Amino acid sequence: MRYGRRVATIVNPDTLAPPRGYSNGILLGGERVLFVAGQIGWDASMKVADGLTAQFALALDNVLDVVRAAGGQPEHVGRMTIYVVDRHEYVREAKAIGAAYRARFGGHYPAMSLVQVAALLEEGARVEIEVTAVLPAEAS
């Protein structure tokens, strides 16, 4: 897959089940690695959005704000970990969550993990997302 001058190679070995909505691995070139801390679905005033899908969308926006501030774009994200407090709720809202994801990332699917946790630190938070991105070298 080619993104401008950068090349991303999707790694989905035939020995694994075909992924749906993510890549098993993604190999990105570049010189700068960005680790984005877990972002929850709240705004700049620290108000948590209502409902899982709204929180998921806002958490993605927050992640992408960090990526863009560092000079990257959604396609530079190589790994995403999603923490949810209720996997059944995630499954119930998967269609709307998928639409929110595609509105921000299009058809770019980094290596992803979904983890159910007992709770998140912020009261009312239902989801937290962290990513690792490989960004283009800075222009000199």
What does this structure look like?
By secondary structure, this protein is α+β, with helices and mostly antiparallel strands. The chain has one domain: 2-Layer Sandwich (60s Ribosomal Protein L30, Chain: A). Helix content is 26%, strand content 31%. The protein has three helices and seven strands. It has helices at residues 52-69, 87-92, 94-105, and strands spanning 2-3, 6-11, 25-28, 32-40, 77-84, 111-116, 127-135. Strands 4-7-5-6 form a four-stranded mixed β-sheet. A three-stranded antiparallel β-sheet has the order 1-2-3, with no helix packed on it. The longest helix has 18 residues, at 52-69. The relative contact order is 0.27. The mean pLDDT is 88.
The CATH superfamily title: RutC-like
Beta-strand content estimate: 25-35%
CATH class: Alpha Beta
Work out the number of β strands: 7
**Terminal CA distance:** 27 Å
Rg = 15 Å
CATH architecture: 2-Layer Sandwich
Q: How are the strands of the biggest sheet laid out side by side?
A: 4-7-5-6
Look up the CATH topology. 60s Ribosomal Protein L30, Chain: A
Count of spatially separate domains: 1
Structural class: alpha+beta
The average pLDDT value, as a whole number, equals 88
Helix % is 25-40%
The helix-strand sequence is EEEEHEHHEE
The biggest sheet amounts to: 4 strands, mixed
Number of helices: 3
Label the overall shape.
Answer: globular
Uncertain segments: none
Give the structure's gist in a few sentences:
With 140 residues, the chain is of the alpha+beta class. 26% of the residues lie in helices and 31% in strands.
